[in-house]
Each structure stands twice: as structure tokens, then as C-alpha cells.
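Weekly puzzle thread! Below is a chain. First person to post its structure in C-alpha cell form gets bragging rights.
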Amino acid sequence: MTLLERLGGREAITAGVVDTFRTLSRHPHPSRHEEAVGADFMEYLQALGLSPIRDGAGNLLAEVPPSPGREEEPLLILQGHMDMVCAVAPGSGFDPLTDPVTIVEQDGYLRTDRRSSLGADNNLGNAAALWVLGQGVSHGPLRLLFTVGEELGLEGAKAVDPAWLEGAAYLLNTDGFHLGRAIVGSAGGRRETWTRPLDTCPAPAGEAWQLSLTGGTGGHSGDDIHLGRANPIALLAGFLGNHPQLAVACFHGGAAFNAIPASAEAVVVGPRPDLAGLEAALAPFRATDPHLRADCVPVNQPERVWTAGFRQTVLGLLTALRHGVYAMDPQFPGVVGASANLGVAEQADSSFAVRLFLRAARKEDEEAMAKENQALAEGAGFALSVTGYPGWPGDKKNPLALALDRVYRAQTGRGLELNMVHVGLEPSVFRAKAPALVMASTGPDILDAHSVDERAPLAGLADYALLLAGVLENPLS
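Winning reply:
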């Protein structure tokens, strides 16, 4: 009997993975709010007869005894993260702290009702691994590791005790986005937050308007950055920069460092804005952002607006900062090597903040982009704070990836592409804690992650589950 038959066939596998994903998604789980989803993981693992533990950061670990006769094989860690980037559609009323995502199966995809992102990144990979484990598949020594705060710069991975990695020969991360790919390296990340005190003056007489750009496609700032999607922050700032007659009272855009912005809005005082120029700026993005639209509605008169100097400086910075691909990877053709994402422009009561995410496989590219940003932002009077994580150098001879390729060929008749990705993955942090650990990453197909259009093709879930089950059943040497 084949592995596919022992697991019940493709429909049963898909249904099982989806059902597990629904279980792991029944509570909200944005980054830094993983307590409830962590309890769901604990409950699921306890039902499998395991004794999971959590550390002070909220990371979760469970040892899985090997199947009889396989006690002497190398220890494999299956690893994923529990948090998600919760993108929210403007005006939807969705609260990422209290509302669980609404999961629907539509037109061959697992997706949401478009009020929020789905969280398939990474709970769909987690669900596949846990469902396979519950089917009684034979395996050697196994350890499960689920982290928190991955979407905030791999925070949970940074907090993992190196003892949790000790004794393991291999680590398989389930946070890949592309079925049919084994990831053997990933980009490092640099999160820049630039802040400056607000400089305001009394608002002039005149009508007040809310200008908004909504419905942008957005997406993952690493996986989708090469697709040329619109950045509403830069577009709206550019429009306002060309209309000095409009006094700016406030400006907001974007949701997260690592999400391409899908919307931006500003409150202005002055004559009713003519949106013709803004519509013209949107025209080049009709193919990538078909739902992007500009609106102007009257609002209550604000008490204060930005001074003319502050206005010119901030709007100039938002339009000058780089957004998009900086360089391609010289070793892996077709893979982005370095990029910048202008992710958030955020006005608080007394300050204005700009949040950017730089990704780079090569340190020299990151340093070049950072130097460019520093010159622009410091020239605009902004102060900098930085967090980040290292890259994970790629190796096309990675033995775990080659083992995955053999299994995938046996189960599907197709080979795996061995490649790097332009995203941050937790193996980059684990590498420093356990240098001898051989690591690779795989995952089911996920499209438009970190956006309300996030979706996962149902047709590939069985193949991914078969890959995981086959790796468990076949001894790693």
C-alpha cells in the first residue's frame, strides 16, 4: 500500500489539514498576542499524548518518542511559528486582537472573507505537520518547536534556549511559501524606525478633507516585492508634495514593517483637491493593484496642521525613500538579493514615525541601503532605532534538502527546486545557536501573504503532507 493510500487519499488528506488549520486559527494570533493560539497548540499536542512545554517568551517545545526500531536515527526538529501578520481591510470593522479570521474554501482556494489576512503563514505548514503526526506515520527521534513573534523580526527564535536545539542533526522549517521548493538560505533583515517630533501650527480657515488611497494589493515585503505593486504611502505623499496649497493635518499609511502598504490617508485643509493628478499616478498600477482607488470626503476642521517646513520635509522624505528591488542575487538567478519596503508612516499625538524594512542576502547591500536611508532621514531631522537578524547563507548541496528532493520525487514524480528566498526565516537565528544543525525549509503554496487577498491553493495540500510524511518515514543519514 502506498503512503498516499495509507493516509486515506488526497481528499482525506486535504480535509484533515484544513480541519487542523481551522483548529489552530480559532483564536486571534497577531504577533505578541499568541497566548490563546499557544494554548490551542498545547491542547492539540496533549491530545496526541505528548507533554509540551513553553518558555517565558511563549515558544513551545514537545519531544516525540521515536517509533519502535528507529531509536538510533538522527534527531529531526519540525519547526514553525504561531504568529501572523494580520492585515485588515479599511472600514471592515475587523479587530485583529479580538476577531478570529473567517476561513472559507472558494474556487479551489483556502482564503478569508477579505476583511483580514488568512494566517496560512505559518499555521498552514504547522497544520500539515501536526495532522501528519497524528496519522501514526513511522518516524525517528522527533522534536516539535513552535515559536512566537516571527513576524516581528524572528523575536521568538532569538529567545529560544540553545538547549532546545541540542542533540538535533536536522531542522525542517515549515514556513516556505512555495510547494515544490526546498529553501536552503534566506535574506537577513533590518528594521528601521525613524521618528521626529511633530511641528504644527493653528489650522488655517477653509474646508477640511480626508484623502485616501485604499484597496491596494499589498502583500509580503519579501516574497512579493519584485512584483512592482503600488505603495500608497509614496503615492499619496507625492500627490500632496505637488499641491502645496493643501495644509496637512495628519498622515497615516501601512500596517507593518514587512507588509507592502495597501492604503494611506491624510487630512488636509484647503480647496477641494482635484484627484486627477492622483488618478494619473495610479494608472501604471492598474495591472498589479486593480482595486486601488482614490477618494476625497469632507471631514471636521482640525485644530492644527503641519508647519510648512515640516510638511515639505516629511513629504519629501516619504517620496525619496527607496521602495522595491535594490539588487538581484548573484548566486541564485531570479531571486531578489536586496530590497527596501516603505511599510508604515504613522502620526501619533506628538511625533511622526516612518518604518522601513531592508532585506539583503549580502551584508554590503544592506549597508549600502542603510547608508542611503540614513542620509535622507537624518537630513530630514529624524532619529533612528534599528533591530534586525542575520542572513542564512545558501548551500545547494544541503543534505536535508537533497533528502526532501528524493522523497518528493518518489511521492509526486517531480523534483524540488533548491533555492534561496528573499524573506527572513528562523533558521538564520538557529544557525548561530547550533552551527552544526543542517536546516531546510519547505511549505505549501501561499499567495499574497500579509494581505487581505492571502490564499492557499487546496490542490497542493496533499502533496505537501506527503512530503512531510515521507521525510518522517525515510531515515535521514
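Puzzle host: Confirmed. Bonus trivia for everyone else. The longest helix spans residues 363-379.
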